[in-house]
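Hi R.,

Here's the chain you asked about this morning:
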Amino acid sequence: MSYSRKNDALFIDTEALSSLALVQEGLLAPVTGLMGKEEAQDVDTTRKYKNIPMPYSFILAPKGKRNQNVLKNAKKGDRLRLVTQGKDVGYIEVDDIFKIDPLKRTFQIYGTTDTSFPAVNRALKRLGEWAVSGKYEVEYPSIRENIKKVQDAIKESGAKRVAGMMLGANPFNRAHERIIRQVLDSCELLVIFLMKPFTNEGIDYNIRKESLSIFIDNFLPKNRIVVVPFENSYIFSGYNELILDAILAKNYGCTELVVGRNHRALGAIYSENEMNTIFDNFKDIDIQISLVNEIVYCDMCRTLVNQSTCPHGQHHHIHYHHKPLMKLIQNGIIPPTILVRKEISSHILASLFPNRFSNLQETYDMLIPSGGLLEEKSEKDFYIKLIELYQTSGLT
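And the predicted structure, written out as tokens:
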């Protein structure tokens, strides 16, 4: 439905719409709606909501001169339309309108207001000075579909132990594979929340999703894994994101959340004049946190290992860091197979660099043994065979 009147409409982006839908569908329970001024102040002060850890209040404060004028003139009981990309997506019945400090709000989320951090800069561009609370309703069917997908999988499998895992897969690599296998050893069902950010950073979501599907469909018992998109909006940011991850996983039906020891949210936080680990915040959330060690490739063990069981030093270890792998891929270089499985890297490169070769078939026929068969080959086929040539031994 296209909007017509502007004095009764709030214009929100898809990121805000997604966050509203998460709460509406109960995925951040006990939070079930927007918070008013007093409730928001209490949560921001105590960092708790209904005795459950909550790093910051849930509010709606859309930026923009038009939005700010609407909020300043709105009264309790008014019904405001919520508009995204020119279409009505829901409404809110005004209960409370109050002023906020965008800088203070940003600090609560990220622990800093330094705009050199892209996430901080983005947040300040989205936050207005006036917030609104009240009963609301939004249309965002994909989240309901995701909930049903997970619930159906739990019901069909009869799983009692359901693990959740937040995964960027940017790119999906051998360490991810090893961790997934380890988790499957100790649970009956694994829910992978594949991150789907609202930015264009990294590899496109659909490419990463297909990469994960290639691995699951060909190398795992796929009836024990569910993959759902995790639209990690700005509220899942900063050093407290792990708390919200745990709450979301629990409300999806997971009994445990798998976390890498190198997760940026782990470590010490300063609270009430004491240094506490982040795990102090989980005692009231009914979900188990399972830590997994960092996976590395050891050139002495000649396999993937975790650092706690490998006797060789750091100088023998190859780490699966995101940045160097992305550098290779963004420059069109095939990562070694000890880093990324050839089926995965060929898919990624073929997707990122379509029609890269002016005469692919000729190049393929001149480089790759055909076995006597003449068949038209795709770029993905070419990359796979090229990787196999790199692995051919006999000449040094």
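The chain has 13 helices and 17 strands.

Let me know if you need anything else.
M.
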